[in-house]
């Protein structure tokens, strides 16, 4: 189970899981601490048996005025961006994967912020979305920069754990497991865990409560 | 690094392998499944031509989208998308050989109510569900974790998840709880002390006098809201209270097997000299009933305590925004703050003890004019038990709607929702903007007894000022 040689690691079915080393593009700032997944993807849009339409529901309520018309929410203003810049405890609350699915399908490929809720971060890893945690000042500076320079290039480097823009390089932290998973193209964990199925069965058989 | 804690022991016992990304592959002893987060996972499984590896370790129910009126539950459901989700779950579970508690099963209800009350959840298990409130099951001394849909696919395909071991924080809650103060007040107080993101990177091991004194239903309420403090899981070491609760439950071991299993349960308790990454103390003596004033569970005060000025909170900007939304006044207490809706139920407080507690307040009283009051048992089992005890009548006499089991107005994926800017006294776990189905709606979290008191007064009120019935209903042996 050593790492793959190339960019793409074949999974058990022969499909490719791409390695993700860097995300380059433009930014979209969404300000505020403790933004929960109910805000990111309201519960009423969870009534669907696929994730296909989630892109249009991302931040649905925040993006619209009372009469339903689109307002100046960043997701309406920074279309085409792929690096989301946020603050503290982003993605807290419900475990719904619909939230990162919605962001991903809107276009987000990497998220830079002060901190992330764990289930949200795990969900991002499962989807190959990189999350980089940076200091408060750095997160705010990045948001300010994007607002002043919406067209400017931003690059999240997963290997170096940095975000670079406008000649500035900010150090951050990608969780070790996420970093490894993205770089090695093993962020889709089903295939690798499936190779240990016999060991899982052995653990199962050895548990005191599985004889029923 | 922690050592000798229940978390360490259960983790070791369930570890399958080291994964190349540095995570552990952890075997999952119980996978709870519901209709909202599973259909995509079944779909992904099908795409990969895989089968559910451990269907017998998997239990499904329908809870988020189900209507709570008995008429509303006839099939097909009026809401086509809800019907589609339910149909998918029925077909998927039948195909995979997974036990399913559907609308035609009287045990149907909220996953986090059904799992414990039927005896599926036991100490020393790993439990996951595509729902953040899986932390609930830590009440048994299990490790309960909420997961996303791709991870549900992983559990289906491999019986395991890829996971990082977290730091273990011992949360020592001291003090004896006063009359009218219970588990919900304790956990809201803990979250206020430690913050909504205070638990990130941690699991919480709850202990101390105030925790030990709680019955299982109270412990379930405490562990349920661990995730609201940012902790991935929260647990309480199993003890006699746990074992007594489990004995006789439908899917728990019985007889000699029960005694044998108990040895395992005892063996996974945290050692006396266990090492924790962190120990914090929270004093619950003289604790008042708690009420949230804002839009996250950390924004909470005692009912007789002044709502803080934004400047006096951890996050002044957030507090100011929250207070503008809830229209509470800093410097004043929450007492007297008017409510339009009273909601009893959910995976936090939808169990028998919760309704008994509320019924003691409601006995001989009536819901205030203009208050819409909903009692939504957490499961069909809870509902039938309360009906056998005659407690449903107390609710009906008081003017509560007596509904069928489901998640209901907690997140309003069915017809039960706040309308406009209604203010709700809620026994649920989240007061986020829009959580109860209206972006202008306001939610104030509190205990079941406090919800009942608010329903009667039409305003937030201190339940300690109410004469409550000593006994309620006729206890019926199971």
Automatic annotation (TrEMBL), chain A:
Residues 22-135 form the Aconitase A/isopropylmalate dehydratase small subunit swivel domain. It is an enzyme of class 4 (lyase). One of its GO terms (biological process) is amino acid biosynthetic process. InterPro entries: Aconitase/3IPM_dehydase_swvl, AconitaseA/IPMdHydase_ssu_swvl, IPMI_Swivel, LeuD. Keywords: Amino-acid biosynthesis, Lyase. One of its GO terms (molecular function) is 3-isopropylmalate dehydratase activity. Belongs to the LeuD family. LeuD type 2 subfamily. This is 3-isopropylmalate dehydratase small subunit 2.
TrEMBL record, chain B:
SUPFAM superfamilies: Aconitase iron-sulfur domain (SSF53732). Its cofactor is [4Fe-4S] cluster. CDD domains: IPMI (cd01583). Its EC number is 4.2.1.33. GO terms for biological process: L-leucine biosynthetic process. Pfam families: Aconitase (PF00330). Binds 1 [4Fe-4S] cluster per subunit. The keyword Heme does not apply. InterPro entries: 3-IsopropMal_deHydase_lsu, Acnase/IPM_dHydase_lsu_aba_1/3, Acoase/IPM_deHydtase_lsu_aba, Aconitase_4Fe-4S_BS, Aconitase_4Fe-4S_dom, IPM_dehydratase_rel_enz, IPMI_cat. It is an enzyme of class 4 (lyase). [4Fe-4S] cluster binds at residues 347, 407, 410. Heterodimer of LeuC and LeuD. This is 3-isopropylmalate dehydratase large subunit. It comes from Halobaculum marinum.
